Amino acid sequence: MRYLPKSDSERQQMLAACGLQSLEDLVAHLPPEVLQQQALELPDGMSEFEIVDYFRQRGDRMANGYASFLGGGVYRHYRPVLADVVVQRGEFLTSYTPYQAEISQGTLVTIFEFQSMICQLTGMDVANASMYDGSTAVPEAALMAARVNKRSGILVARSVHPEYREVLTTTVRNQDLPVTEVAYDPRTGQIDLADLEAKLNDTISAVIVQSPNFFGVIENVKAAADLAHAHGALLIFTFTEAVSLGLLQPPAGADIVAGELQSFAISPCYGGPFAGVIATRMEHIRQLPGRIVGQTTDASGKRAFCLTLSTREQHIRREKATSNICTNQALIALMATVFMAVYGKVGLRELAHQNLSKAHYLADGLSRRFQAPFFNEFVLDCAAMGLTAEGLNQSLLDRKIIGGIPLGRFYPELEGSLLLCATEMNRREEMDVLRGALQAEPVLSSVNGTA
């Protein structure tokens, strides 16, 4: 027990009130083999100074000062200071679910603005108050599509993030929604439209396509949507790199958009927490999971906000609910909202251009696995250059550079390929060192200069 009375008399009084003679009587009903017979071997406590110093030392052993070209669904972008200033305010940091609109106007306003900006980014009519992350938003979108058209089959492009596909399969395993993967074109890395058309039939509820996909390749979303609609299926568009929405056109023909907003001022933070999003067309609003904040007027006729739609099982009968999702990730979504407000339309477009240009500078002259348009990620064909993905990464680590993701772990047929990403955080000097490692005369210069 962590709390003990200050004196023996106090301890005896508490035991007597419980009808016990000793502390051991509290666990007398348990078998001896499950009891801890000796004191725990715990070190002495540390002062605040010692704890801070300990973690600083651990941090120095990590990748502090290293350049990184990792992507694959989690991206290193600049985080405006204002994001932390806002989210650390007590009224946001400690707020709870805005059940009572009369005392939750501030939180409701931020969620309403979040929804509005997501609709502008995606070209959809309505967005919910955020999801856990992109990986859970995708299966929620699949379940939503099945409710809309009362069909059971799901087609998902194999170029969709492999971990998203895993979560999708796990989620719908007992929902009578069989999942079938659609191949990608080995030349371009884009979805194989012929394979998609061959697998479409009147049982398919939705087709899931990601763009830019896991290979960084930009998909022909409209062509996939046209095929899906021709067979009565919905098109679910998903994304992992939200910055791309600042440059690419909204997904033409998409019925549901499900994605990840980690790039918008949300730290990689060892993989979470992040903020997912679902947006859709107005005719499907009743099937959206979670809830929606809407604008109204109060008793005095002034502008006010409230929960307009709540389809969670906490709010309505379970059999009528669209999802059992328990949170709207309001604090994390607020970070993304601040990011979008700080950058604005022009700023986000400029940021997207920076990502595009830096990735293309990095890729220039290198052996790419897929010959198709890409945003800020591309697949390097290490095998064609006489290298292994793991060997190249180790060589880069010696130069204080974290390389890319070896794709063999997800796609056996792409063994020897490396997924590289460049964002606005990567300096030209760092990219030159990486490019030099792939050439006959490696660049050994310092990477500590400026862009």
Summarize this, please?
With 451 residues, this protein is of the alpha/beta class. The protein is 33% helix and 14% strand. It folds into 2 domains: 67-78 and 345-437, Aspartate Aminotransferase, domain 1; 81-339, Type I PLP-dependent aspartate aminotransferase-like (Major domain) (Aspartate Aminotransferase, domain 2, 3-Layer(aba) Sandwich), CATH 3.40.640.10.
Lay out the secondary structure:
Layout: H1 8-17, H2 48-60, E1 67-68, H3 81-87, H4 90-93, H5 105-122, E2 126-127, H6 134-149, E3 153-157, H7 162-172, E4 179-182, H8 193-199, E5 204-210, H9 221-230, E6 234-239, E7 256-260, E8 276-280, E9 291-297, E10 303-310, H10 330-363, E11 377-381, H11 389-397, E12 401-402, E13 405-406, E14 417-421, H12 428-437
Parallel strand pairs: 1-12, 3-4, 3-5, 5-6, 6-7
Antiparallel strand pairs: 2-8, 7-8, 9-10, 11-14, 13-14
Descriptive notes:
- The chain has 451 residues and is α/β, with parallel strands linked by helices.
- It folds into two domains: 67-78 and 345-437, Aspartate Aminotransferase, domain 1 (Alpha-Beta Complex); 81-339, Type I PLP-dependent aspartate aminotransferase-like (Major domain) (Aspartate Aminotransferase, domain 2).
- It contains twelve helices and 14 strands.
- The protein has helices at residues 8-17, 48-60, 81-87, 90-93, 105-122, 134-149, 162-172, 193-199, 221-230, 330-363, 389-397, 428-437, and strands at 67-68, 126-127, 153-157, 179-182, 204-210, 234-239, 256-260, 276-280, 291-297, 303-310, 377-381, 401-402, 405-406, 417-421.
- Strand 9 and strand 10 form a beta hairpin.
- The radius of gyration is 26 Å and the shape is globular.
